[in-house]
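Reviewers asked in the last cycle whether our approach scales beyond single polypeptides. To address this, we selected a multi-component target totalling 1255 residues and predicted its structure end to end. The input consisted of the following lines:
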Amino acid sequence: MVRYDYFKPFTLGEALELMERHRDAVYIAGGTDLMVLMRQKKLSPKALISLRNIEELSRKDGLVIGSCVTHREIQEDETIRKGFQALHDAVCRLGSTQIRNVATLGGNICNASPSADTACPLLVFDAEAVIAGPGGERRLALVDFFLGPGETVLQRGEILKEFRMPGHGANTGSAYIKQTRRNGVDLPIIGVAVRVTVDRKDLRCKDMLCSAAPASEILAHFGEEELRCEDIRIAIGAAAPRPIRARKAEEALKGQLISDETVAAAARVAASECAPRDDIRGEAWYRREMAEVLVRRAVMKSLDGVLRPDEMVYPDRLW
Amino acid sequence: MHGIREDHRSDTIGREGKVTMDLTAIGKRVSKKDAPPKVTGSAAYIQDVKIPGMLYGKILYSRYPHARIKGLDTTKASRLPGVKAVLTGADVPPFRFGVYKDNPPLKSGKVCSLRDEVAAVAATDPEIAEEALDLIEVEYEELPAVFDPQEAMKEGAPLIHEGHVGGKEKKPTNVLNLPWRLIAGDVEHARKEAAFVVEGTFTTQWVTHCCLGTSGCIAQFDEASNLTVHSNTQIPYLAQRDFIDALGSFGLPNRRVRIIQSQIGGAFGSKLDTYAYEYIAILLALKTRRPVKIVFTREEEFLATSPRQCTVTRISHGCTREGKLLFRDMEMILDNGAYTSWGATTPSVMMMPISSLYKVPNVKYIAKCVYTNNTYSQAMRGYGNPQATFAIESSLDELAEAAGIEPYEFRMINANEPGETTPQNFKITSCGMKECMKEVKGRLGWNGKRRQKDGRGFGMASLVHVGGGARVYKSDGCGTIIKVDDYGKVDVFTGSTDIGQGSETILSQIVSEVLGIPVDDINVINNDTDVCPWDVGVHASRTTFVAGNSCLGAARKIREQILETAAEALSEDPSGLDIAAGVIFAKHNKEKNIALGKVLRNAHYASGGKMLMAEYFYDPPNENFDREFKGNLSVAYAYGTHGVEVEVDRETGSVKIINYVAAHDVGRALNPMLLEGQISGGGVMGLGYALSENMIYKNGKLMNANYVDYKMPTVKDVPPMQAVIVETDEKNGPFGAKGIGEPGLVPTAPAIANAIYDAVGVRIRDLPITPEKVLAALKAK
Amino acid sequence: MKREISFVLNGEPVSVDVEAQWTLLHLLREVLELKGTKDGCGEGECGTCTVVIDGKAVNSCLFPVMEAEGRSVTTIEGLRAPDGGLHPLQKAFIEHGAVQCGYCSPGMIMSAYALLQEKAEPSDDEIKDGIEGNLCRCTGYVKIIEAIRSVAKGR
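The resulting structure, written as structure tokens, was:
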């Protein structure tokens, strides 16, 4: 018979202390991954320590997001929608409304699926994970947080406390696109997040038509103006045992003029940095192809976010 | 946008210029009578039924796809507190169920698939029962297994059922002894004459019903060992017969069996045969002398219910220079899986589009069903028609291209027409195929543009299906009993089952129309074999037609009785009376009237009193097939055409449906709202079949037995859809109606495949049409 | 070991003894005998178990019962008006033909209920977002969207 105890601490200290006392316990936040794992008998703890009622884990404050903030709360946050579009994009397409209402950002990251939708956006925003443990707090770059499918650096008893994202300058846009098997609720066959900063201080938006057109056509609207990529981050999920940064692709585009050729070339490099597998969700060759396509589209979508930040971003399918 | 109405309602065509009767219930958008309890949560599905003293049963499935059972130890399980019975194959007298009687409810000796039932437990709590399963020790000796029917056909392949022999030499074989062979005309001769011939191989995948309410039943014996089963079966009377036979084998001959149907949470053919779990529940109930409930988890629903089988089809098609079809030659190999259920008989239905979809004078079809160590299949909406039509309608487009004729024109040239007799001896009465095709073309804005830069294209495909019953068994009948009570309310006892499609409402509308009483005054009882008359089952889209006609017959008899009785009370001739809103009145003077309730009370509160009750058994005048599979299987045939406009993303291979028009010849729309529901429901199921659904098996094991990785459509996957109802007034149907239950998903996949070809010039011959396949094909060009 | 939790259920305060490992779904169906909320998959994928907690749609099959403490839970049984009248959503589902086998209906209606509480006039896209996590195999969703839209627009 499945029996476990359930504790509801109200502070981080209480939670850590409960974990010390109950050797066979696990932490639970939203529970949307954990409850399924337990039902499938992949996990059989003797106690659950709920993190849901700990205020300091549910704070959202500028560039700091508590690990127990739900995806729904993130979806409704205007600051994130305007300034961290990729994260907004990701949560909008994560699970269903019911899942988003309870599932937490920290829970999704700690589950450490290589395809976690929120991982890539957090990576392109240079997020740091702040970890609380019996011995105090430590921080590390999120990219180093993942060790492999389902594995993180968290030691026994440690709690992922919050995410910190450094601010980024003006002229920065971001996007997250994922390729799925159907339009509704789906895990990504592959997911790509991009953050791009362009080198234009006095960018004027030109009146552009629907951009099903290739990048060169859009860029041609700028006439004599040139767009140079000042900085770029590219993260890819479901294409390796952990979400990865496509650093070579980033190098390839950083400092370059943005054009069809340079973006396409960077996308090809990004695809080569992936190590995808065949699984029941998708085939390796297709994932690699899509890495290239989606990186290209995500760069353009991010640019779109820079050029017309307050206007409608195009629906995913055009990109 | 062409064809899509703002209010998403259907358009009905075909009544122009026809005399419309003044109808009060027929043709109206009447709400479903079973909807109120369903929206309040009070409707009781099998999951919700609880009987005092009830135990919970759980089943242990095989660990290997093919193995001998060397040892089975249930002692630990039996000792677990709360466990009341543990059964294995050794505890059951020899008994086999299923279409071929090759399936024992609990396997002993050997297991032939991963869904084989090896043992079962009844306990006071489902969790205890689960735990007990873990305590059962089974020792297996693995045997070589075979998962590909083409491999299983070869000499030396592992034999699934060692005793099974076949062929002329009666040698052991995995090929079933089924006579699936249809020959009409002379295909070889026609092949030589044809100006254009195309060939192709098409494959379809395993898909499953995904009913939101999982399978389950409660078995309960009384003191005399008569059995009651609470069930969500689609075949109450056939199940009753199967269970009576089973009881006979279990040492209980001559017993009564009562089937009580709970609300059914979806069927789509999944409950058209009995399953091992039902016999297991019966055996556990017998052993414990307590009611035993078995309800499947979602995982079990995927693993242990029987899906639509996959097919490999070779087809060749030929036509004259002018585009007239000359021949159709098809060969199929079907994976029968480890045991035999209705999947083995789908070729008999596949013959229907093969011989009768479009006018094609020379036809040949051979199908082989082969045992493998896979899951076994049974009925699923369309029953083989979707698989066959995918091949036929895709190939037809290829032939049209070879002949240089536009796909719509090609279809019109060969369209079926009323009054035809097809090569399978189907007698086509009403036929709205041409109207359906015209509607689709017009509403899509079909403009003959091909392979334009924008990645958009059009495709269409038609269907034929039985629409007036189907004599697949010796009987195709349905009985109805109607009784009127003292308050003017009517009870209609029908053998047919409502699986959610709304038959209860349709029958109420028919009775309402004939008797002139409000639909709300009619109560349909359809879920108890002790009370309701016989019906062969909900299949073959037969319920509106057959149960409808049965109801019509009984209602007419009752109407006569009512008018006769009222005539006495009103001192009028019955022919001078009419009924409206529950009141019988004299046609020449409405003031002269009497309420229906009063008529009834008058009838029996009198000396020599009588009651008003009528029964009618309708068995449609269709035919069983002869030995050559020819015969007028149905009294009427349903036609339809689906058309789509797609947009293909050349970089990702994703296919987006821009516009979807589904036109269906239904004879007569008894209830347009319910019809629309069938059309959109079927269409979306068809979309899933075409684009995303796939049971992924590896070495007999289902890798995606869950909703995460079995991708059925969500609300976001539904394109703009327009339903068009074409009315052709089928004279043999109740008020002119024909069936619609299955046609909704038959032509969807080929319509999409054809549209993709139109858009980007690649032809996908393998379902589902995933972005991977499209992209791979584009790259290969 | 049983613990007592207190919460508001369909507008009324309840106190009930629960086992820590129960899900809210188990409490509702098996203990409180409120059978309207359904069990369709147990994994949060089908939505038939949807209830509304503090105004938000939630899969009760994944919701630990202990977290219900102090919250306001609404199930399909709680949608009726005090005089027994049906909620506009329930009426709309009936009138628009949005119910076939009905197994998905309670969960679907609860998701729509939560949506309309948060947004009185959702667009079609927002309606689809609201019920994306509710699977239906019978209707093809078309009439479900119609029904919800009709309530949203007050038609």
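Chain B touches chain C through 57 residues (CB under 8 Å). We regard this as preliminary and will revisit it once experimental data from Aim 1 are available.
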